[in-house]
Each structure stands twice: as structure tokens, then as C-alpha cells.
Amino acid sequence: MKAKIILLPGDGIGPEIVNAARQVLDTVASKAGHEFTYAEHLIGGIAIDETGNPLPEETLKGFEGADAILLGAVGGPKWDDPKASVRPEQGLLGMRKHLGLFANVRPVKMVPGLEDASPLKPERTRGVDLVFIRELVGGIYFGERGRFEKDGKRVGFDTMIYDEAEIRRIVELAFRVARGRKKHVTSIDKANVLDSMRVWREVATEVGKENPDVTLHHQLVDSAAMRLVTHPSEFDVIVAGNMFGDILSDEGAVLTGSLGLLPSASLREDHVGVYEPIHGSAPDIAGKGIANPLGQILSAAMLLRHSLSLEAEATMVENAVYQAIADGLRTADLGGGESSLGTAAMSEAICERIERA
Ligand code: IPM
Ligand code: MG
């Protein structure tokens, strides 16, 4: 098949790991007879430096006709001044809104061979296999906000707001995903305190009644935060609003102890999606050639699966990654120590395993 893929390397280690993932995509393409074309565009801090805008018009134009977008990471200390009026993160949030990517999907699975990397006891993390479905274009991230002065004091406010259609589409997606898994949805809210979250629970309950083959549990966000570390293997699909999903998915990401390994997809109703590793731009190791490319490579696997419907190719990439880990290959962040592989060597090892498969 033919596909047009947009590359948004972004900041920090972004360019190195996007480059590594592109090599993997090219290997898959030549092995399976596909034709992928790429176009690279600016986003984040580098886009601010070059154009003054974290999401330039030219980048938005580049999205037209694209099948999928592979993003590295945005941000870094250079642009971190909290008083700055333009920030790299605005590029990310603006892109999500512009493309209508309402669902952020983050699978978290214990990788065989990396059990020791988890901060939790092995008996707790055994069998962890869950997926976060986070609402991405609504809630407090996009509600009314502002700052003003009152009685000589600075005041800031943000508004958590959800309508039932926004809740329904994300919860319905969670049910569809659960149907292909362990058929269990945990809906996160704070219905004991917040009105927006009472509407959330009502709508989730309705969707649950319409999908009786999938079990639904409601859980308050605070107790969910606790159970994620005490009983992580009890979760299957976790659906949450934008803010709670942001927080819980980072907590979920460290369960496996391998932040550098986790991919994510931001999706909408059609096939177009943005794929990025869940880790940040790691400015401290940028340009050193030691960044772990596996989260980016597994994001490319999600791209193959969700945007291009290439399930077999996606599995091929995932198996190559798991095989490399089983073979004992490690980057520095995975505890590789003296024998750590750098970014290029690790991506070559993945490409070799795909070619051999
Ligand atoms: C994420 C990140 C972003 C978010 C930041 C960088 C704006 O934390 O993708 O989870 O809060 O959504
Ligand atoms: Mg986050």
C-alpha cells in the first residue's frame, strides 16, 4: 500500500528517535512491499525558534492528505519560562484540537525480561496489561480560563467542562477497545465532588447499559490512583477525562519501570492519528546518540496498526522489539550499563530482526 506519513521530530531527543523509527518503517515497507512517503515539519520549541509559532501554518498545511503523523517530543528548558507567552506545549495541544484527536490511547504492558525495572514488587506487576483511554480535546485543558487581580491578589482559574456528546464518544471507544480485550472498563471520575464528573458518570452508566457484554466499574480518581499501584493487574481498559487521564497515565507508565518503551496514539473517528512515545524530550541526553528509540518504534507500530490497518506489520515490529529485549539488548535507561546500545545500534538491531522474521 501507499501511505503519506508526516514526521514531527520536535525537540531534544525527538529528531534522533524519529529518525530511528523511520528506519524501522522503511525496513517494514521494503519487506512487505509498501511505499511510504514522508514529509518533515516543525512543531514545539524548534518551531518557536524558527517561526515564532509552536504550530506554524505550514505544519498545519502539511497535515492535509496525510495518513498519519509520527511525533518525537516537544519542550525543553530553553522554552520553560512560565511567564513566556508562547510555549512548545501549545503546539501539541493546538495540533490535538486542530485535528480533532479526541482519544489518547496508552497501552501499558509488562515486558518479559524487564520485570526488575519496575519500582513495584514483581508479585504486584505480574500480568499487568492495561490501556488508558484519555479524552484529549475537552475538559479543563480547553475550558474557560484566565487570570485577573482581585483585592490586590493575583487570581487564576480554569474550568472543567464536558458535554454528554464528548463523554459518550470517548466512553464508547473504551467499550469497543475492551471488547477486543478482557471486556472490562473502569471509568474514572470525581462524581462525589464535581458536577462535570456527575454528568460523566451518568453518561458512562448509560453507555454501560447499552453494552452489557462489557463490565463497567466506576472509580473515583483518588482511589484509582491508589489501586493502580496496589492492584495494577486488575485493570483492563481505563477511561478518563483529559486531566485525570493525564495524571493517571503517567502513574501507569512507571508501573513497568520502562518509560522509554511506552508508545501512545492520539486518534479520531477516521484513520488519521498522531503517534508519539510517552516520554519527554530528555534535553539532558539530546544529541548524544544514547536515547532509547523503542518507545518511538513501538509508536510507529501503533501507526501501522491504527492508521494503515497493517496489523501483521505492526506485530512484526512489536515482536522484533520484544525479541531484542529477550536477547538481552538494552539501552542505558533500561539498565544496559557498560554494554548499553546507543540509539542507532538499537534501531539497527530491530531492523535486523524484522528482516529475519
Ligand atoms: C501528555 C503531556 C501533555 C499533556 C503536555 C506536554 C501538554 O503531559 O501528552 O500527557 O498534558 O497533555
Ligand atoms: Mg502527560
Would you kindly provide a written description of the structure presented here, covering whatever features stand out?
Helices cover 41% and strands 20% of the residues. It has helices spanning 14-32, 45-51, 57-62, 88-99, 122-125, 164-179, 195-210, 221-230, 242-255, 294-306, 311-326, 343-356, and strands spanning 2-10, 35-40, 68-73, 103-109, 129-135, 145-150, 153-158, 184-189, 215-220, 237-240, 263-267, 273-277. Helix 1 (14-32) packs across helix 10 and helix 10 (294-306) runs antiparallel to helix 11 (311-326). It folds into two domains: 1-114 and 258-357, 3-Layer(aba) Sandwich (Isopropylmalate Dehydrogenase), CATH 3.40.718.10; 116-257, 3-Layer(aba) Sandwich (Isopropylmalate Dehydrogenase). The protein is an alpha/beta fold and 357 residues long. The mean pLDDT is 97. The strands form two sheets. Strands 2-1-3-12-11-4-5-10-8-9 form a ten-stranded mixed beta sheet, sandwiched between helices. A two-stranded antiparallel sheet has the order 6-7. Magnesium ion binds next to helix 9.
